[in-house]
Specification:
Elements lengths: L6 E2 L5 E6 L5 E5 L4 E6 L27 E2 L21 E6 L2 E7 L2 H6 L4 E9 L4 E10 L5 E12 L7 E3 L5 E4 L5 E4 L4 E3 L4 E5 L5 E6 L4 E8 L3 E6 L1 H7 L11 E15 L4 E12 L14 H7 L1
Antiparallel strand pairs: 1-2, 2-3, 3-4, 5-10, 6-7, 7-8, 8-9, 9-20, 10-19, 11-14, 11-16, 12-13, 12-15, 15-18, 16-17, 17-20, 18-19
The structure holds 6-O-phosphono-alpha-D-glucopyranose (G6P).
GO molecular function: carbohydrate binding; glucose-6-phosphate 1-epimerase activity
Catalytic activity: alpha-D-glucose 6-phosphate = beta-D-glucose 6-phosphate
Enzyme class: isomerase
């Protein structure tokens, strides 16, 4: 079978552009198997990419959906978020509306992480305003292997300061801004009025980003990714992050479907898989307020 062709995308990097019959499109780079654009049929971009993005491998693309594998953040001895987002993946299959990319262990990867693995990531434009991604990891070695992972999705918002993340009420979280102390989410939603960096544990598989100012919701349905990181860098971290524009914190929130608290342990020869489906839902007018009687801590502070 001939190797599926790539085209030249932003930053002169190779990748694949998907196009659905409805007019929806997506761009997936071979660098990091990075999904860096998803436009719904109306031409509206649903993912955020930094205004100061740098397309220079091995640096990860700032925005879209970096794949954190085989380590999330500093949960292990590897560099931040592992190495999958910094590597060149191979296009192993494609149709007009889907692409499959594969990353295999190499002698160089085994110096960092001593395991034989095959990681397969697939992006599919679905019917309606859906986008489906699946990822599988096969342990091709003879010893068990353990990893953490996240689909680090940057959701574009018309106004992140008015956005809400729903579906997390009652979940415990580790507050990465406070020594990863464990807390409980008591709010009906997570709002953004300061820096937020939390690892919500064993959450519902149905979450949503409510872009109130944009009159739209993105529904997130995840499978086999029990945790969810919620992140907005706020003012100082945006300024301090070289490839983020100073005001970019107003333009996105990250909700990262993840397996972190309980790392995945995969026996030799076995395969693990996960899935994330995104659906954009438009609202005729701003989405109705969600039980403002029970605001989260940051909302309560904002109201003062
Ligand atoms: O700058 P990066 O390595 O891409 O990480 C960006 C962010 O990723 C996650 O959301 C972490 O929880 C944050 O602590 C981190 O700042």
């Amino acid at each position: 079978m001939s190797k599926p062709e790539t085209t030249t995308l932003r930053g002169e990097l190779p990748g694949v552009k998907l196009a659905g019959s409805t007019g929806a499109t997506a761009e997936v780079y071979t660098h990091g198997a990075h999904l860096a654009s998803w436009k719904t049929a109306d031409g509206v971009e649903q993912l955020f990419v930094s205004s100061d993005v740098v397309f220079k491998p091995p640096k990860a693309i700032r925005g879209g959906v970096p794949i954190c594998f085989p380590q999330f953040s500093d949960f292990g001895p590897l560099g931040q978020h592992g190495f999958a987002r910094n590597e060149t993946w191979e296009v192993t299959a494609r149709t007009p509306t889907s692409v499959q990319m594969t990353l295999r262990s190499t002698p160089a990867s085994k110096e960092k992480w001593p395991h034989d693995f095959v990681c397969v990531y697939e992006v599919m434009l679905g019917a309606g305003n859906h986008l489906k991604t699946t990822m599988s990891v096969t342990n091709a070695g003879i010893e068990p292997m353990t990893f953490t992972t996240a689909l680090h999705t940057y959701f574009r918002c018309d106004d992140a300061l008015a956005a809400k993340v729903t579906g997390l009420k009652g979940a415990s979280y580790l507050d990465s801004l406070d020594g990863r102390v464990r807390r409980e989410e008591i709010g009906e939603f997570v709002a953004f009025a300061e820096e937020v960096d939390r690892i919500y544990l064993s959450t519902s598989d149905a979450l949503a980003v409510e872009d109130v100012a944009g009159s739209r919701s993105i529904r997130i349905t995840k499978r086999n990714l029990p945790d969810a990181v919620v992140w907005n860098p706020w003012i100082e971290k945006s300024k301090a992050t070289g490839d983020l524009g100073d005001d970019d914190y107003k333009k996105f929130v990250c909700v990262e479907a993840a397996a972190i608290e309980t790392p995945v342990t995969l026996p030799a020869g076995e395969r693990w898989e996960c899935e994330q489906v995104l659906e954009c839902v438009k609202h005729a007018s701003p989405v109705p307020a969600i039980d403002d009687a029970a605001p989260s801590k940051v909302e309560a502070e904002e109201a003062r």
